[in-house]
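Hi W., the zinc ion complex you wanted:
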Amino acid sequence: MIETPSMSAPNRKVFDALARADKPLSAYDILNRLRRNGVRSPPTVYRALDWLVAHGFAHRLESVNAYIACQHHHGDGMHAGALLLCTVCGSVREVEDESLSRLAKKLSTRFLTEVNRQVIELSGVCHACCKPDTRS
Ligand SMILES: [Zn+2]
Ligand SMILES: [Zn+2]
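Structure:
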């Protein structure tokens, strides 16, 4: 688990909700889960999500407008990973590869002076969902 003094109580609650979930959560899902824990206002959740994403604790899946806890716990800033999303069961795997960072750097320097946000999303059907049906 990540311990950081700068993580405020609401940020921690939102992070815990993401870390416990086995699927990406929308801001609305998070709000529903945290209502009992005293987090009731959408702006609190949005602020926490912004903070968690900005600090590398969570990632936003643009294609489904939902969030996952970072599975690598870098805890600091942007890193080069790819999010693999199964469109059948909704689970997400985060993968990291040095060559991804190198490629991102190579491509971006042609146009950008610095990269603030990098999102690589691949979606398809995961191995578990692709298993042949053995019930017959
Ligand atoms: Zn990550
Ligand atoms: Zn799946």
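The chain has one domain: 9-126.

W.
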